[in-house]
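so im writing up the methods section and need the Release factor glutamine methyltransferase record in one place, dumping it here so i stop losing it
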Amino acid sequence: MADSLPGTLGPLLKAAQARLAAAAVADPALDARLIVEHLSGTTRTQAIADPECKVDAGAIAAIDAALRRRIAGEPVHRILGHREFYGLRLSLSPETLEPRPDTETLVEAVLPFVKATAARQGECRILDLGTGTGAIALALLSAVAAAIATGVDISQGALATAMRNARELGLADRFQVLKSDWFEKVSGRYHVIVANPPYIASIDIENLQDEVRDFDPRQALDGGVDGLSPYRIIAAKAAGFLEAEGRIAVEIGHTQRKEVTDIFCAAGYTPAGVFRDLGGNGRVLIFELTKP
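--- predicted struct ---
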């Protein structure tokens, strides 16, 4: 099928979009552009200014293969091998959750506290539980030069991806990774503990969108019988790793605000903020230890 794709940029983009549209891919224009630009090494500007620009046969074959994968249901960013998050280009791997725009809400929610702590104390120590690609920690490090972070994950593959991202972004000197089942191997105290834990109830996994269910790692999705197991672990154990004036920030499912708040309050925390995502849903909760 590769020879059915045109060998010049403008027609190639149109043909790729048409193929995705015929397969009822949700956003065929965007996905076609991302695939063609990435694999041909071209830009939007080139497509407009020089639509007759030649694309070599190797790139066309790679584009054809990528289109087939997209039509088969694989998310476009998995095909490309990277995704942008908070202005940072992050590499993906099969062991990592694909970071999504709603999680930027967590970065924005905790960033003022990170900045204030760094300004006041000369540094801000961050613990990122279930770090995956390193998205949350690396976004905070990129915004606050005096911040340092430890990314914790149970997956060695995820940790390798996070460290690779730190190196590629020039942040490796302020980022370290630790293989640990939540707090099991963690030591020291932190000003901020952040987490986007698995929060889908086990029974609901099969009802997720195909692109999530089939391509995101299940252990990054499955939050136990009721989707709340990780929050119970974090709430029960975080106090031993949190500085006196520290904060915990967690991403939640859009229906979980009351349940997660109750879990942390029962463990001795006070709510310190609710932040809404792009759709207006309560997405991030911040807690502090209740003062005696």
